[in-house]
Amino acid sequence: MIELMIVVAIVAILSAIAIASYSKYIQTSRRTDAYSALSQDQGIMERCYQQTYNYSYAYNGNSGNTSGVNCTQIATTSQNSYYTLAAAAGPAGTSTSSYVITATAVGAQAKDTACATLTVDNTNKKGWTPTTTAAGTCWQN
């Protein structure tokens, strides 16, 4: 009976380790949802800029767009809904000449506190929060 209890305890310990490791793996794999959504939105932003010389039309619903070219509006959620997306004026400070797109983890993915948000700007500079997370952890190349 004692031997059986020892085996059960060992199996329980191994299961706890395996479940934690698997959960971390799932969180990491779900980041691809953000990568693809950010990449798609970057493409939309660049196509809009190429036609209108203005990034803001792609994320503000073409408000004020008198160019005659309607820009596709960027997505606000990722394909699998693990992230919400938002674009804003970028480092240059104007919405017409630069942008930053942010993907924020929601739902089950919000437990991924190591990479709570992922960002990319018009120069393809990638960022993440919290910034204490080691470089190369959030953005897999």
TrEMBL record:
Protein name: Type IV pilin
Matching InterPro entries: PilE-like, Pilin-like
Record-linked Gene3D superfamilies: Glycoprotein, Type 4 Pilin
Organism expressing this protein natively: Dyella acidisoli
